[in-house]
Write a structure and sequence with these properties.
Oligomer: single chain
CATH architecture of the largest domain: 3-Layer(aba) Sandwich
Helix content: 40-55%
Strand order of the largest sheet: 2-1-3-4-5-6
Number of domains: 2
Structural class: alpha/beta
Radius of gyration: 22 Å
Distance between the termini: 24 Å
Shape: globular
CATH class of the largest domain: Alpha Beta
Number of helices: 19
Largest sheet: 6 strands, parallel
Length: 426
Amino acid sequence: MKILYISPSAGDSYYCGNCFRDSLQATALIRAGHDVTVMPLYLPMQLSSEGVPVFFPAVSYYLEQALFRKGNMPAWLGRLTSSKGMLGLASSLSGTTSSAGMEGMTMSMITGEDGAFRRHMEEMVRWMRKDGLPDVIHLSSSLLIGIAGYLKAELGIPVVCSLQDEEVWIDGLKDAWAEAAWKAIEDAAVHVDAFVTTSRYYRDVVRSRLRGIEPRVIEPGVEIARYRDDVLPAEPTVGFFYRMNGLDGLDVLADAFVLLKRRGTVPGLKLRIGGGAIGPDRKLVSKVRATLRPYAEDVLFEEHYSPAGHAAFYRKVTVLSVPLQFDEGVGLYVCEAFAAGRPVVEPRRGSFPEVVGDGGILYEPFGPGPLADALERLLTDRAEYDARRQAAMALARERYASGRCASLLEALYKEIILNNLTITQK
């Protein structure tokens, strides 16, 4: 099966949950024998297929939405803002946590109505015809749903659209833009053959936000063989592996670690931090470093982030904790930790009760004290640790394996392709 996977891409500067989900799904399908082309829309990414252009280069498209919405940006300016150097700079600065000020670009990608959007889509369609049309197109997010309508009208190819954490972006839009965005997604849903999400929790969020949309649930899949390591670190090590910012709770974990060090109940306790940070995160990272300074010799910051380095990180920790400050559709880092045979400690919120199961401890309320208590419990009770670890490995095999994810996606693709053939023949 020939599959085109369209991902916005955050430029591989930090651990982007949705970007990594796209990577996992595409890789699983490739291993299952499918011909998968990964197309990054805004910024280059490591997984992108060779020779695939960036059709909506971030800087260029932002300027078009601000100044040239009719698609009349001067050619020289388009070449400059789409250059390799400019894309590299944009990648290093990517990752804004606020959608305020991005209303025009957001609505353009959802509605697909302005001239600038259509100009870029014309280029994409020309490239697709030259490369060979896919059997199915998979959009990474409903924030890209305007692409579905255009491609359906031009090519008639079935479209799948993933849904995950759109509200984090949409609800940050100014004034009445958020309501308009949700309504526009509902209207554009007619062009999508199937919606898919990664947890029952987020399926229910979608039901409450978007009328008439019923997504399938397909849990993420991780290649267990790349992660599994039965040898634990010599010293108990708590790991944080996500973007290093306040929204993902790095400062909360730092405070909890300091509490544990002061208690002295977990001898030799270490903290390993990875996942990447960019410009907007530097202030928070500096604050966290100051908090941890008294125990600096027991803390390791992995400054450089690479998608290829995920598995190695999990093998170096005893337990993982990413104390999110919002409700997430799925925590892929939990699935990765389970694949490595590492239990987790997470707040009792969002999808964590569903995803974690018996593979870790859930705590509430959500401050550093309860987190420290949960970590202390897991790291001082070997029987409980071993039980949670065994449960984590079982969940990885039974629910979060890459082969299972690929099989479920393949079945969905075949179903909608068959449905489209039936409709066409009628």
